């Protein structure tokens, strides 16, 4: 082969220790800065005492660099020099783990110097390796620096020697195929993606991780909150009954507080009446005293006239006369006293008669009122009947409450089971389940998925029911049974749309098949529904053979879909068995003669020959389900929801019965209150009549015999007058002056008459004073009673000393105090009623209420925490949506570009290859990956590139073509691939070489290092290639004796015939 004359770049090796004169950047005539080098490309590699080299300098070209040499000559040493010289780790090379092992044996140190192209000035990186301490010394542009500074400089030039998509050494070729889809995606992002793409991906993974944590926290808090609410709901009735009892006890306490106030108020009113009567008597006393005053003045006037006469008589009378006068005065006074006693008796008797008449009149009125009430029947039986009915109502309410508690318990259990199902739905989410199914549909049947999106946007254009592909609308009740459904229904029907009307199906096919050129399947449901068609034989007859169900009972589907499956695939007549069925399969086939049956892990098809009548059966193993595994037990959920509705209806009926009983209870209690008031009023009338009759009998027994008293009084007066006459006779006998005696007698008579009149008025005054004294005593007694009652009421109401009014707070408690009865009888009746009601509430404690209130506070706190976490979750989801929008579209475009080149490369080799962005769940960003699928034979399907499925040569071809797909997209300044063509067959090696040359020598490509120990004959080369031949050994010419021109002359002479 003729060597191009214009090739000026020759790589050479120095076997002796000689230094290169190239310390600065080469001139443009020799290094090709203007010849297509990109930022970061390698201009020069200098190695001293490095692996197989004493001293060598390599000058690669800007495009494809083919490094060729026999095994052991040092090709891979150049790869190691690139890696270690650019601050790469030894683990990338897969050789020794210590950097000192890369120094040539027998030397104490070695070095690597790499010159990188930069528009602002080339960058020279020098690494000197010390064997003794396994340390390295770094320099940038001949100035000492740190490894970190070198790493930063390399990173700025987008060089990633740790990325297999950029740097693939010999020992790592096999690991490329071992890379997971996730690792491949990250390596591709770093290699060819924009700088921010991998950052966005990492940000998304972080956000998703936090979102998942928040979802779990929200779920846990929601579950805990629901359980707390359920626990509180169970205790709510006890709390309500506790507060009802407390209200009754509070009312009892209020009644007990008001009762002394009512007693005090009754005594106070009575005291006010006595005070008023006392004041009236006081006024009467005053008027009597005023009426008596003129008589007293006249008596004083007569006494003033009589006094001189008596004085004169004293002077003339003897001592005996004076004595007789005194005796006479005494007798006169004695007569006055007798008459006054008689007057008092007469007054007392008159008062007694008056009181008797008044009492008789009151008794008559009370008896008349009682007689009017007597026509009413006795209310005691009615009250007893009301009490009996009230007890019966209480028993019914207690029974209903027991039923309500049982229903609540049943409801809680049903809620718990429903929550388990809802938790499964929450974890996976019905939407998420559908998304998973849709993802599988999009991945496997892209045309069907496109048609599905069109259908959802245009559903209003169809008149009948149109169902999405069966794999989306079928819900298998138990995921373990999905394999039976998928084995029985062909895949073409699983992805088929189901139509109710023929014209709708034709309209749909015209649009998606003819207009959009999509390959989709459609079916039409039978006109007559077959969804409830019975099986040919009852399931009970099959159970002895181990069958537990027909296929139809294992899944749910819309009416038309189920009808089609029953009609087309007889899912209503295909039984499903167990291992027991498998163990007796020959008997099952022989005796049942069914066309198709399923055992635990196999499908049996039975046919009967039309010619020989022989029964032929075949079986096949069931494959794991791919599309129908995401299921929810709809029947169980529907039954639980129906059970909850039934419980709610029964609870509503019980509440209605309770409301009726409460209304009846209130009516009975109101009736009982009226009857009790009526009975109490009758009892009060009887007590009043009895009291008045006792008082009347007492007054009648205290009758005064005025006639006997008057006769006795007259006799006493007559006796006293006789004594007065005797005294007077004796007195007159001693008088010397009759005139004085007559005058004195006249005045005395007048005085006596005046004193008699005065005594009459004094008797009335005395009677008034007696009544006044009694009233005053009654007033004092009532005042003492009022004070006692006031103290008692104050003590009960916790009033401060000195307060005399009902405390204001008692009037402010919902006006309850003022609304209580104002009579003692009504208060007693209400007290008895409230105590009876309070006694009905038993088995209640403060601990239940405290626990309920504590849990209510916890529920409020949890609701607030849940709201905060939900808001935080919403924020994270918004951040995820924004980050995904920035990342996913660019990544999808990048993968599509890679796929386009990858597919083209494989097509050019008469093979097939595909690269796609793969994710089982679009929301799990740490599960995204790049999937490579290839096929090298037309008879096979596309298979994912794995370390085990393809041969070594096929893996090498796939790896090489993937790397070439990245070449034109690459952000990195160069790519290194070491001996990747090992194991390829000659045909594939030639094809790959052509692709490498064509791609790596393109216009917009970066530097490429392709290392190989051998080359096929008659390969096609490009002008942009640089071929670096590596020779090594003891007979090599030293560099100063090497002549490029002489080598070319000798080559030309050999070509001349």
TrEMBL record:
Residues 264-291, 383-417, 637-712, 845-886 form a coiled coil. Its main location: nucleus. The keyword Repeat does not apply. One of its GO terms (cellular component) is Smc5-Smc6 complex. It is found in: Chromosome, Telomere; Nucleus. Core component of the SMC5-SMC6 complex, a complex involved in repair of DNA double-strand breaks by homologous recombination. The complex may promote sister chromatid homologous recombination by recruiting the SMC1-SMC3 cohesin complex to double-strand breaks. The complex is required for telomere maintenance via recombination and mediates sumoylation of shelterin complex (telosome) components. Required for sister chromatid cohesion during prometaphase and mitotic progression; the function seems to be independent of SMC6. This is Structural maintenance of chromosomes protein 5. It comes from Cyprinus carpio. The gene is smc5.
């Amino acid at each position: 082969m003729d060597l191009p004359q214009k090739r000026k770049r020759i790589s050479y090796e120095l076997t002796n220790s000689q230094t290169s004169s190239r310390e600065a950047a080469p001139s443009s005539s020799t290094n090709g800065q203007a010849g297509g080098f990109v930022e970061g490309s390698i201009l020069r590699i200098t190695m001293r005492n490095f692996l197989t080299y004493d001293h060598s300098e390599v000058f690669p070209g800007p495009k494809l660099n083919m490094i060729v040499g026999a095994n052991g000559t040092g090709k891979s040493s150049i790869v190691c020099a690139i890696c270690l010289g650019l601050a790469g780790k030894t683990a990338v090379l897969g050789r020794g783990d210590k950097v000192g092992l890369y120094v040539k044996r027998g030397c104490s140190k070695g070095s690597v110097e790499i010159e990188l192209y930069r528009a602002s000035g080339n960058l020279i990186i020098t690494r000197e390796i010390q064997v003794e301490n396994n340390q390295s010394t770094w320099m940038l542009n001949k100035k000492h620096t740190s490894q970190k500074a070198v790493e930063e400089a390399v990173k700025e030039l987008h060089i990633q020697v740790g990325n297999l998509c950029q740097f693939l050494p010999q020992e790592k070729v096999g690991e490329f195929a071992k890379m997971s889809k996730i690792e491949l995606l990250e390596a591709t992002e770093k290699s060819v993606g924009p700088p921010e793409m991998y950052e966005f991906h990492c940000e998304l993974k972080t956000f998703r991780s936090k979102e998942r944590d928040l979802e779990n926290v929200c779920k846990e808090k929601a579950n805990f909150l629901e359980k707390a609410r359920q626990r509180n709901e169970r205790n709510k009735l006890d709390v309500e009954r506790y507060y009802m009892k407390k209200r009754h006890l509070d009312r009892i306490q209020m009644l007990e507080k008001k009762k002394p106030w009512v007693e005090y108020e009754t005594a106070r009113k009575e005291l006010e009446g006595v005070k008023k009567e006392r004041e009236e008597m006081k006024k009467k006393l005053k008027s009597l005293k005023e009426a008596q005053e003129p008589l007293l003045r006249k008596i004083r006037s007569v006494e003033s006239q009589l006094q001189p006469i008596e004085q004169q008589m004293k002077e003339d009378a003897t001592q005996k006369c004076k004595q007789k006068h005194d005796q006479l005065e005494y007798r006169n006074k004695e007569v006055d006293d007798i008459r006054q006693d008689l007057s008092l008796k007469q007054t007392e008797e008159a008062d007694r008669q008056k009181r008797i008449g008044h009492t008789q009149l009151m008794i008559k009125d009370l008896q008349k009122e009682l007689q009017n009430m007597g026509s009413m029947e006795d209310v005691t039986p009615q009250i007893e009947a009301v009490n009996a009915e009230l007890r019966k109502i209480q028993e019914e309410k207690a029974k209903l409450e027991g039923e309500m508690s049982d229903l609540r318990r049943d409801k809680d259990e049903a809620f718990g089971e429903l929550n388990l199902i809802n938790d499964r739905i929450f974890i996976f989410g019905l939407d998420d389940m559908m998304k998973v199914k849709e993802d599988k549909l999009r991945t496997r049947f892209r045309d069907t998925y496109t048609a599905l999106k069109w259908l959802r946007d245009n559903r209003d254009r169809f008149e009948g029911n149109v169902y999405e592909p069966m794999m989306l609308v079928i819900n298998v009740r138990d995921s373990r049974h999905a394999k039976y459904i998928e084995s029985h229904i062909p895949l073409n029907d699983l992805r088929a749309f189901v139509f109710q009307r023929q014209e709708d199906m034709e309209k749909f096919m015209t649009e998606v098949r003819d207009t959009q050129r999509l390959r989709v399947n459609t079916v039409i449901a039978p006109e007559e529904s077959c969804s409830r068609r019975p099986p040919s034989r009852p399931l009970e007859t099959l159970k002895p053979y181990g069958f537990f169900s027909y296929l139809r009972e294992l899944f749910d589907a819309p009416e038309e879909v189920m009808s089609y499956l029953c009609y087309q695939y007889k899912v209503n007549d295909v039984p499903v068995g167990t291992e027991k069925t498998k163990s007796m399969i020959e008997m099952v086939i022989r005796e049942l003669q069914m066309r198709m049956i399923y055992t635990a892990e196999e499908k049996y098809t039975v046919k009967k020959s039309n010619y020989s009548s022989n029964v032929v059966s075949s079986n096949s193993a069931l494959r794991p389900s791919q599309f129908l595994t995401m299921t929810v037990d709809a029947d169980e959920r529907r039954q639980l929801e129906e059970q909850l509705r039934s419980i709610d209806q029964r609870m509503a009926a019980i509440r209605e019965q309770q409301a009726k009983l409460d209304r009846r209870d209130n009516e009975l209690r109101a009736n009982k209150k009226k009857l009790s008031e009526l009975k109490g009023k009758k009892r009060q009338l009887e007590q009043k009549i009895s009291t008045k009759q006792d008082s009347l009998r007492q007054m009648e027994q205290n009758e005064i015999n005025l006639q006997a008293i008057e006769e006795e009084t007259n006799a006493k007066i007559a006796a006293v007058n006789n004594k007065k006459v005797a005294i007077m006779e004796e007195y007159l006998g001693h008088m010397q002056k009759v005139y004085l005696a007559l005058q004195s007698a006249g005045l005395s008579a007048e005085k006596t008459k005046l004193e008699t009149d005065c005594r009459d008025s004094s008797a009335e005054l005395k009677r008034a004073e007696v009544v006044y004294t009694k009233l005053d005593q009654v007033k004092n007694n009532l005042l003492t009673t009022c004070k006692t009652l006031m103290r008692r009421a104050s003590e009960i109401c916790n009033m401060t000393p000195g307060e005399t009014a009902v405390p204001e707070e008692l009037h402010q408690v919902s006006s309850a105090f003022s609304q209580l009865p104002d009579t003692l009888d009504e208060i007693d009746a209400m007290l008895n009623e409230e105590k009876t009601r309070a006694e009905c509430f038993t088995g209640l404690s403060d601990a239940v209420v405290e626990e309920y209130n504590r849990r209510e506070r916890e529920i409020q706190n949890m609701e607030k925490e849940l709201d905060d976490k939900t808001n935080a979750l919403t924020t994270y989801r918004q951040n995820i949506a924004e980050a995904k929008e920035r990342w996913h579209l660019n990544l999808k475009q990048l993968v599509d570009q890679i796929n386009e080149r990858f597919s083209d490369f494989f097509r050019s080799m008469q093979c097939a290859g595909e690269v796609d962005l793969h994710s089982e769940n679009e929301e799990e960003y740490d599960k995204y990956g790049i999937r490579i699928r290839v096929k090298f034979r037309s008879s096979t399907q596309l298979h994912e590139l794995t370390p085990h499925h393809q041969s070594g040569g096929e893996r090498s071809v796939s790896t090489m073509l993937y790397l070439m797909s990245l070449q034109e997209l690459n952000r990195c300044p160069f790519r290194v691939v070491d001996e990747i063509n090992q194991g390829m067959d000659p045909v594939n090696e030639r094809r790959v070489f052509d692709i490498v040359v064509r791609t790596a020598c393109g216009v917009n490509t970066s530097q490429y290092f392709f290392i190989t120990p051998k080359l096929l004959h008659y390969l096609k080369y490009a002008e942009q290639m640089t071929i670096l031949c590596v020779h090594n050994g003891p007979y090599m010419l030293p560099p100063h004796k090497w002549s490029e021109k002489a080598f070319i002359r000798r080559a030309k002479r050999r070509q001349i015939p």
